[in-house]
Amino acid sequence: NIFTIFCMDRLGRKYLLASSMLLSGICVFFIWFVRTKVENLIMSCLFGLVSTVGWNSLDVLSAELFPTEVRSTGMGVQQAFARVGAILGNVIFGEL
């Protein structure tokens, strides 16, 4: 999170999002080559670092889609729908 704060304005939101998603995919690809616990730990840490940067960039980009005067309301409604969708997804998955 701290790394993302320093890089967000310097590198740009879209660049951070695109590069983190690409690097996340590369980390997932290299899971095939993990053989030891230490390698597993290293890959998990790398994936966690890269995917956190991506989620932070996505949060900033989605907040900036709304005009300043309705930004908090827009994000609140968006988060409410996301949480209802997550709950319904778990319930429906359990039923299926």
UniProtKB/TrEMBL annotation:
Membrane topology type? Multi-pass membrane protein
Keywords associated with the record? Membrane, Transmembrane, Transmembrane helix, Transport
- Sample GO molecular function, one term: transmembrane transporter activity
Q: Where is the Major facilitator superfamily (MFS) profile domain?
A: 1-96
The reply to whether GTP-binding figures as a keyword in the UniProt entry is no
Q: Which GO terms describe its cellular component?
A: membrane
Q: Which InterPro entries match?
A: MFS, MFS_dom, MFS_trans_sf, Sugar_transporter_CS
Transmembrane parts of this sequence: 15-34
Q: Where in the cell is it found?
A: Membrane
Q: What is this protein called?
A: Major facilitator superfamily (MFS) profile domain-containing protein
Q: Which organism is it from?
A: Lottia gigantea
